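Researcher: Following up on the earlier apo prediction. This time include the ligand. It's flavin-adenine dinucleotide, with the SMILES given after the sequence.
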Amino acid sequence: MKIAVCYKLVPDEQDIVINGDHTISFDKAEWKIGQYDLVAVEAAMRLAEVAGGTVSALSAGGKQLENSKLKKNILSRGPVDAYMIIDETMSDADSYQTAYVLAKAIEKIKDVDLVVCGEGSSDMYAQQVGSQIGELLQWPSVNAIGTITLADGKLIAERMLETEVEVLEIPIPAVISVTSDIFQARIANLKDILEAGKKPVVRWDLDDIGGVPEMSTNVLSVLAPPQADRRRVIIGGDSGDQINEFYEHLRKEL
Amino acid sequence: MSRVKDVWVFTEKQESIAELCAGARQLGERVTVLAVGSRDRIERIIAFGADRVFYLGDTGADRTVEDYAFTLSKLIEEEAPDLFLFGATKRCRHMAGRLAARQRTSVLSDIMEFLTDKDEIQGTQMVYGGAAVRTLASKSATVFSVVGSGVFTSLPEDADREGDVRAVDFVEPAYRVRCMEKRERGGTSVDLTAAKRVIAVGRGIAKEEDLKMIEELARLIGAEIGCTRPISEGVNWMGRERYIGVSGVMFKPELYIAIGISGQIQHMVGCNQSGVIFAINTDTAAKIFSQSDYGIVGDLYTVVPVLLEKIRAAR
Ligand SMILES: Cc1cc2nc3c(=O)[nH]c(=O)nc-3n(C[C@H](O)[C@H](O)[C@H](O)COP(=O)(O)OP(=O)(O)OC[C@H]3O[C@@H](n4cnc5c(N)ncnc54)[C@H](O)[C@@H]3O)c2cc1C
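Model: Understood. Below is the ligand-bound prediction.
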């Protein structure tokens, strides 16, 4: 089975700087792989290990994709190779544009049996791309997958909805989005990281995959919400007296 | 003048039908609910505020809700609604994404507020884990949106309301996923938003049985218990309805006590409107401290037992 797992590079939200006018800046932000995409990579690897097959990593984004540490990071988690569609327009792409470009790339990679996506990206968290890729490829797609196995060429999966669990039979090729806790993402060891540096990375630009449709939304503003002022009375240790001081503050609120 | 005339609604749960009908009324002129399930529900849907119900059919052994995607897609093509609202469940999210892709557009997700007085539909949503609020305008002919829960308030049910009902022919899906079995998913239905006092725990708690001490503290001060997402979805020590944050419960209790929680933005947006915030954390540099009123740099296993003693003694 040939599996493509999608991931997105996102600015670390802990590094966001809020400007005086409430606009936000990422100029100082480190980039990282989306938290739930790492889980998707793990799910793809586990399935490939059990059912046989290979995993390719796939991403569309801006120039951060070129970052060699991030390339090694994704490949150290098991994929045999990585495909990247790099163009600045993709760093602000909406979910339809992203799904469109990824679907085109999946067709170009050829013979992909299964596309695995995370629950949602760490930055926008719209939880849409997997569902949209499925429709663009005209393959069955499902979200919220919490377990997967392969039996007789079909996937048997459990879908974790709010109040019920569905046991599904999914014909392949298909697109699935997995839950954030289907597996714990692995921690790569030094050997994996060294080997990752030797794995092939295929770079495409938008022309290679036939362009990208226009954005379907206009972003009018991105503003930090006002923060409540806090007293920030911090007691520096947990000796008996210090706990007592903390308790006295608490007691007044009870 | 608003260009929004036809607003469609698709959702699973009875309560959210009422909410979304109220929202659709507010935003547009004619409200149409796309209904899957038992036919008996139609009258109530009209009572909740629908002008029209397109009845798609029921689900059963050989037909899932998802199988209606093709039927819905054909209807969208024929009728071109201005706005299509979906409930904030996983199933609705998936349906919205699929239908929007078929119309070559994105979904406005988790919209907290809509503006329709311009000649376009705008919505606001939280992004970057809640660090920012983004306002978007959709450029598509039919605007698709997943509406955050609780954004609209249901109107009183009106049994005298009249509406049109149209039965829609099923379109055979070109591809489908088969559902072999369904099971109830366990879990209590606690409503944290109603709690005045909440104690929330994070990964600073080392073992599940240590929650007993937290439960005792909660009992003594009359608080509900909540947690961070990893405590619920990572280790499953608490139900999903108890985790607080951008993808969980967002609320404003009077008192919030964060124990062993680092204070990541995704968590804090759920509770940073609380009246007063207390924090217990071993790490001086933990982000939670700059977002608290009172904090103690200490081991929860030292601090909580002493607090228990003092609160008991004071009673
Ligand atoms: C798209 C997206 C959505 C998310 N949505 C949510 C959400 O809605 N809600 C949510 O909570 N998270 C959410 N998260 C996850 C979030 O980013 C954090 O990972 C999570 O909130 C951290 O949980 P935590 O504070 O329990 O764990 P950690 O960050 O691991 O913090 C544990 C803390 O405990 C302290 N500690 C350890 N031992 C002790 C001790 N003995 N005594 C006292 N303190 C101790 C440590 O110093 C540390 O600060 C989301 C993430 C993403 C990517």
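Model: Chain B has two domains: 4-167, 192-314.
Researcher: Noted. I'll compare it with the apo version next.
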